[in-house]
Amino acid sequence: MRKKIVAGNWKMNKTQAEALALASEVVNMVNDEVRGNVGVVLCVPALYLPILQKFTNLAPNVALGAQNCHNLAAGAFTGEISAPMLASMDVPYVLVGHSERRQYFHETNAQLAQKIDMALANGIIPIFCCGESLQQRQANDHFDFVTNQITESTFHLSPQDFGKIVFAYEPIWAIGTGLTASSAQAQEMHAVLRQHIAAKYGEDTADNATILYGGSCNEKNAAELFACPDVDGGLIGGASLKSREFANIIKAMVA
Ligand code: PEP
């Protein structure tokens, strides 16, 4: 079944004390105010995953996610974190292929396919990020570019494994810029992605795929974006760093 998810991507923000406060506030707000079937995922700096579990353990609808994992299980990769390590810490989700990882760390579709395999082999749900640049959109290349990202990183999977992935469509030009895709642009791309999935895995799998929107989503525009029939929630960057605003975005998903 298609899941509704609102995920926060904290990126490289917050000290320990700030992280504890933010997670505690979000969990309390979700427990007190959110009625309805929406999963919340907090993708926090890896360092804080263990200390934040005491909060997420108190909230059945809130889970933790890492922001990245390596494509191999172990080895001489100083500074990296592997999927088996995350699994050993009971981390249920991991972001894979965020545009900042693609841009600054040169992650390729092929490498991301390996990261997805590694996450799934360790029982972790990948939130696979995809999205086009402004240039690609202006050249009318955006549908081909994003569907190709999905093909190259996920279409090697068995239908069973494919069904476990969460997708996040994040136009690069909308991330952290304050420029949100219009609800029409988001819906259009999500529908194209669903058709693309249907052509490979069939209508049922496509219909059940969870596809989030990300890119300058905030408490003002969330309700309109989430009302689109093919938008199943959001991946939220900047606005997930403020508990009140993030909780309001979550509530927009169940309203
Ligand atoms: C993100 O980084 O995934 C994101 C969507 O960021 P923002 O909401 O700040 O645009």
Could you explain the architecture of this structure?
This protein is α/β, with parallel strands linked by helices. It has a single domain, classed as Aldolase class I (TIM Barrel, Alpha-Beta Barrel). The protein has twelve helices and eight strands. The chain has helices at residues 16-33, 49-56, 83-88, 99-104, 109-121, 134-138, 142-154, 159-162, 183-201, 203-208, 222-226, 243-254; strands at residues 5-9, 39-43, 62-66, 93-96, 125-130, 166-169, 210-214, 233-236. It has an eight-stranded parallel beta barrel with strand order 1-2-3-4-5-6-7-8, surrounded by six helices. Helix 7 (142-154) packs across helix 9. Phosphoenolpyruvate is lined by residues 9, 170, 175-176, 214-217, 235-239.
CATH topology name: TIM Barrel
Highest-level CATH class: Alpha Beta
Q: Count all strands and give the number.
A: 8
Shape: globular
What is the total domain count?
1
Ligand names: phosphoenolpyruvate
What is the CA-based Rg, rounded?
A: 17 Å
**Mean pLDDT, nearest integer?**
97
Element order: H for helix, E for strand: EHEHEHEHHEHHHEHHEHEH
Keywords:
globular; 255 residues; 8 strands; alpha/beta; binds phosphoenolpyruvate; 8-stranded parallel beta barrel; TIM Barrel
Describe the protein's topology:
Layout: E1 5-9, H1 16-33, E2 39-43, H2 49-56, E3 62-66, H3 83-88, E4 93-96, H4 99-104, H5 109-121, E5 125-130, H6 134-138, H7 142-154, H8 159-162, E6 166-169, H9 183-201, H10 203-208, E7 210-214, H11 222-226, E8 233-236, H12 243-254
Parallel strand pairs: 1-2, 1-8, 2-3, 3-4, 4-5, 5-6, 6-7, 7-8
Helix pairs in contact: 1-2, 1-12, 5-7, 7-9
Residues 9, 170, 175-176, 214-217, 235-239 line the site of phosphoenolpyruvate.
